[in-house]
Amino acid sequence: MTLPHGTGHLAGSRPFPAAAHVELGKPQLRANLHKATHTIRNKRARVVEELPDWEQLRLAGSAIKANVMARLPELLVEFEAAATAAGAVVHWARDAAEACEVVTRLVRETGTDEVVKVKSMATQEIELNQALERAGISATETDLAELIVQLADDEPSHILVPAIHYNRSQIRDIFTERMGDAPAGLTDEPRVLAEAARLHLRRKFLSSKVAISGANFAIAETGTLVVLESEGNGRMCLTLPETLISVVGVEKLLPSFSDLEVFLQLLPRSSTGERMNPYTSTWTGVTAGDGPQNVHIVLVDNGRSATLADEVGRQALHCIRCSACLNVCPVYERVGGHAYQSVYPGPIGAILSPQMTGIEANKTLPFASTLCGACYDVCPVRINIPEVLVHLRQAAVDSRRDKPSAERTAMKAMAWVMGDRRRYARALRAARRGTVPLERVLRRRTVRHLPWPMSAWTASRDAPLPAPESFRDWWRRTR
Questions:
Q1: Residue ranges of the chain whose pLDDT lies below 70
Q2: Is there a domain that residue 3 lies in?
Q3: How many CB atoms are located within 10 Å of the residue 423 CB?
Q4: Helix (H, G, I), strand (E, B) or coil at 44
Q5: Total structural domains in the chain?
Q6: How much is the pLDDT for 442?
Q7: pTM metric for this prediction
Q8: DSSP string for residues in 93-123
Q9: Residue 132 belongs to a domain with what CATH number?
Q10: Is residue 405 classed exposed, middle or buried when 0-12, 13-18 and 19+ CB atoms within 10 A define those classes?
Q11: 279-283 and 224-229 beta bridge pairing
Q12: Residue 295 is part of which domain span?
């Protein structure tokens, strides 16, 4: 599989069906996912019902994000000017490789070989940890779930809860085997596990000179970055180190500070099922004697401009990374995030990753959906994910039109048969004559296994046998 240069962790080496088949063979994974996703989505439903104007908030959030996409170039310039005036240094990165090069250089200039990190989808997307490791720099994830995944030498499988595929006993085993300074006799009680992680991270917080973060929002009019989190680790990373480097996707902009009012209501309820998040951190450039004195902001494109150019698909850039769509998706619940082979799993990943990499690198992801529409119903900014999935499915088919295809040949033959009433009637009569003996043998009206190439159909569904009598024949006989 050939990927655009430097796109990072947005595609894998296997098509989705093959990867999903592997994950479906893990019953413990499915049990963990079912429990976690149902717990989160039930909490979300309860707190959303409390707001009589929830739908108006969704409409407002959608309108703000649509406005951002329409004005993105000018808002980026406005943000750079405001952030620079406040003392930050703004860098631009066209792709993942360029973003990693910028961050690595900035860390090296400080003379340190270790950094602490706030949970960030953007840094996972560009595979920053791997780039830093190649440069001899150790990066420690400080979000509890991200720490679990890092210690396990694994990859996140959920946008909000990266370690959702682990249960408590599995986490205890990871800490015992990998943490190094885990206390003796560690149990799987959540409070005990959290305390072990807190003690492990405390030394990192107090000694690290450089922190790396992402941002949930970037305010164009003030140059402010905003991070929402639940554990306090973000606050530690954003205030204690001497140097702060924030990696931000260009779509994270909001025009004005007042726009936060809408999203600070939408995001916590949609992501964690909370009325408000425990920690909201905002910072604008450098303040003398308070917080990091070297603030860098790396604005990353990495396929977002290509996505913006698609009038239907660009709504994927509205995403505020709440993960509500993952928690209601029947496909994600059964296969988990690793099957998508991208840092963005679930329904939003099925529309975002193919656009950022180009459809050829992720052509099976748009088909990783039942099109049930549950993702659209819960999306806080009303991204019509089913619409984009169908749009991208068409793009995937169009990309293969110049290649020989058994399916295309069969469809052309069927079109020729069905294009003439007499040909169609003769074909139906012939099919009925051939299937009457088969029905007597099977004693049912469906076939469960057909030979190639129709085996692609019966791999996931039964094929119905032709009706014993056509409507035209029935009409002629009875009328």
A1: 1-6, 405, 434, 436, 438-442
A2: no
A3: 12
A4: helix
A5: 2
A6: 67
A7: 0.87
A8: ESSHHHHHHHHHHHHHHHT-SEEEE---HHH
A9: 3.40.50.10420
A10: middle
A11: antiparallel
A12: 59-305
